[in-house]
Design brief:
Strand content: under 5%
Largest sheet: 4 strands, mixed
Shape: elongated
């Protein structure tokens, strides 16, 4: 019988995800790629193996060139995320209003997804990919179209943003664990797993075809090369990245939530195997034996999914969607285990409120830091453009160059000491050798093209009197190039 959509979990999730999205919306900063798209209006996702992202943003933007239509993409992402909580409530039969919302929150409330939410243009494509990946994982097993339907949802997610597939893997793995805790029949669990494996293989085969016809450019080619020998090394590096960026007490709360899935899945698989063993056939017994070690181990690997086989995977928060999905999988498994522990779901809600509060806290600090970083770099950029104009009135300039980077203002540095992950989430656009520095300056006026400066030239500047002196930088004119040497002291990134 058709059931109406659970509106109360949707409303609860709207509040929770709203607390995550609002600080970023309030900061209103053009984030990295946003600067080029806001000023030039290009698409460019297709060459990264994301052709559907081009289609989606062209439709949302009523054609090209793109323009900044904030807050519409962010609000669209917010509604999609809240809808996802309602879907999880219905498909996994979660009681109450807040339990589904709290279980879904880490998917996009994770500190790593804050970077995804910061892109004014890309937020809708990334979030749509995440939602489609979860839909593919939770699509009910019934009807002759079940495998093609799951395959289509997963393929669309891959064509929007590839790391969303890791959320798919986590929720695919979580479902047999939940089924075991609910004493589902082995045949049902095996049929469900078989349909997911079939859909995954079909989607991956079709996506390889998409990649061959879309991936172009140095960055995309560099990060799409396959090297299976790097699997274990990449696995260690990804978990090292998580450990180094979540070193505070608040971070450990999130790590504990993510880690709960492993012992709960192990205990659930052991309990299920013992209960099913007497009446199980040979094939089912083999599956029961394999489930005991494989389910917990797969939960440790799945957050990084296909990225583990890449020669040069991207180690950046936006690619860490799987960690938030692991927290969601843990929360869902905990909710399923509650009846076996003779615990009411309200106790689970009480437990999940703690990591939810941590995620909201970090999002708030991040949003405030993002706003201060924007103000700081915008002020510097305006001064630098004015300085360039003043210098050009005296002597022709063929280019400009940066030495060092602008760094972070004092309040942001203070926040970074308490929340180390902010060092990864707050890019400094005015950075030597980074193409986005020129885009940042062009937001405030016309500037000569950016040049590279040889180390010996930088060393020689120590004996030269600066043409302009400011608190954050010195300006030297050398060989018709204005060289900006930043003087800001930086807090080093925790990741090496």
């Amino acid at each position: 019988m058709h059931r109406s959509f659970p509106r109360r979990p949707f409303s609860a999730a709207l509040v929770l995800f709203g607390l995550i999205v609002w600080p970023i919306l309030h900061a209103n900063r053009l984030y990295i790629d946003d600067m080029g798209r806001a000023s030039a209006g290009y698409l460019g996702w297709g060459s990264d193996g994301r052709p559907l992202a081009n289609v989606l943003m062209e439709v949302v933007n009523a054609g090209t060139p793109l323009t900044d239509i904030t807050p519409l993409p962010q609000l669209g992402a917010l509604l999609l995320l809240a809808w996802l909580a309602g879907l999880i409530a219905r498909r996994l039969e979660l009681p109450g209003s807040w339990l589904p919302a709290l279980c879904a929150l880490p998917l996009a409330g994770s500190p790593y997804y804050l970077e995804n939410l910061s892109y004014k243009f890309d937020v809708l494509t990334m979030t749509s990919a995440l939602v489609l990946a979860v839909v593919a994982a939770l699509d009910p097993v019934r009807g002759k179209w079940q495998v093609p339907r799951k395959m289509l949802f997963l393929l669309m997610a891959l064509c929007l943003y590839q790391p969303a597939a890791n959320a798919y893997l986590l929720l695919v793995i979580a479902q047999p664990v939940i089924g075991q805790l609910r004493d589902a029949a082995p045949a049902v669990l095996l049929r469900q797993l078989a349909s997911q494996i079939g859909a995954t293989l079909l989607a991956c085969l079709l996506y390889v075809f998409v990649l061959r016809h879309t991936v172009r450019g140095g960055y995309s080619n560099a990060h799409s090369g396959i090297d299976p020998k790097a699997f274990l090394s990449n696995l260690g590096h990804f978990w090292h990245y998580i450990r180094m960026t979540l070193t505070s007490m608040r971070g450990w709360i999130l790590l504990i939530l993510a880690g709960l899935a492993v012992p709960l899945s192990l205990l659930g698989a052991l309990r299920y195997a013992i209960r099913q063993w007497p009446r199980a056939g040979g094939g089912v017994r083999l599956a029961l034996c394999l489930a005991v070690p494989l389910l917990p181990l797969s939960l440790l690997v799945a957050p990084w999914g296909p990225m583990l086989a890449l020669a040069q995977p991207v180690f950046a928060p936006r690619a860490m969607i799987g960690f938030g999905a692991l927290m969601t999988a843990s929360a869902l498994i905990l909710a399923a285990a509650a009846p076996r522990l003779r615990t009411d779901h309200r106790y689970v809600v009480g437990l999940l409120v703690v990591p939810a509060a941590v995620m909201v806290l970090i999002a708030s600090v991040y949003g405030n830091s993002l706003a201060r970083q924007k103000t700081y770099e915008d002020n510097l950029s305006g001064n630098m453009v004015d300085d360039i104009a003043a210098l050009q009135a005296q002597t022709p300039l063929d280019g400009i160059a940066l030495v060092g980077r602008a760094g972070h203002p004092p309040v942001v540095r203070h926040n970074m000491r308490k929340h180390p992950i902010l060092a990864e989430l707050l890019p400094v656009h005015l950075t030597q050798g980074w193409g986005w520095a020129e885009e940042q300056l062009r937001l405030f006026g016309r500037v000569p093209p950016m040049r590279a400066v040889a180390p010996e030239t930088v060393a020689a500047l120590a004996d030269q009197k600066p043409d302009i002196v400011r608190a954050a930088y010195r300006v030297f004119v050398h060989d018709r190039t204005a060289i900006f040497v930043f003087t800001t002291t930086e807090v080093p990134s925790p990741v090496r």
